[in-house]
Amino acid sequence: MADNTVAESPSKELMSFAGYLYNPSKSGLRAREGVLNGRRVQFFKGKSAVNALTKAEDGKNPKVSSQNEAIDWVQELLDFQLIVRCDRVGDGSRQLRVNPMQNYEEEAYYAWLYEGSQMFVILGGIGVVAVVLAGVMFPLWPSVLRNGTWYLSMLALGLIGLLFATAIVRLIVYVISLVAAPQGLWIFPNLFEDVGFFESFVPLYGWEVPKDAILSEKAGGPDPSVNAADSGPGVDQKKID
Question: pLDDT tens-digit profile of 47-104?
Fold first, then answer.
């Protein structure tokens, strides 16, 4: 464990602990959202942080070997102001205020001042600046790159136009089919469903399932008489199968 003496900046080991606790997918520490001095922050209980450091999950060894060691690390986070002890203003309120006693207690609340790794923020900023500069310097690009960009933009516009045309055609076909048959016929019934790109175009067509059949499926399970190819938008193909 790192020395508890407060230095000018936190050690790499302490920052590793901060990053571990800050990431709920790694530590399992679920923080709640509050407001501290007009700023939105994430806060948690002290015992939750200690439990996150001492628990063994998925066959992996815990981050620390004892509860006392975990408490020492939480105290170091306080000493370096990566977290701050705070109190809730009123029962159930999200409003927080800083507690003058900056020490560890199991039932006390602690808010994050640490904002996680800034690497992605820095890379994102660099990317935005690069895109802006590239756009400004577009007239200076080689003719090959300018022509390629133009073709790519035309391709993107063509794909968007094709999507709109497909949506209009399928709606027209659906309206016409309602006149000829009791059930509406959809072309690409999964086109606007929450599925993958290729699954959006499978099956090629499908008859709209009546509402009473959908209610019957939810109440008593899938109807074996309904074929997946005859299902309409909004119906899960896997459930029908």
Answer: 999 999 998 877 678 889 899 999 999 999 999 999 999 999 977 788 999 999 999 9
Sign, Cα dihedral of 7, 8, 11, 14 = positive
* CB 43, CB 109: distance < 8 Å: yes
Indicate whether 124 pLDDT > 70.
yes
Q: Which amino acid is at 185?
A: L
CA dist 53 and 51 (Å) reads 5
Q: How far apart are CA 69 and CA 2, in angstroms?
A: 11
pLDDT digits (tens, 9 = 90+) for 184-226: 888 888 888 877 878 888 888 888 766 665 555 555 555 444 4
Residues 6 or more apart in contact with residue 4 via CB below 8 angstroms:
72, 75, 76, 79
The whole-model pTM stands at 0.51
Domain ranges across the chain = 12-116, 162-241
CA separation for the pair 231, 189 (Å, rounded): 8
The pairing of beta strand 32-36 with beta strand 39-45: antiparallel
The counts of H helices and E strands in the chain are 8, 7
Query: In this structure, which topology does domain 12-116 adopt according to CATH?
Result: Arc Repressor Mutant, subunit A (1.10.10)
**Integer Cα distance of 97 and 160 in angstroms:** 51
Chain centre distance of CA 28 = 16
Q: Are 106 and 47 in contact, with CB atoms under 8 Å apart?
A: yes
Instruction: Decide: 37 and 89 in contact? Cβ < 8 Å.
Output: no
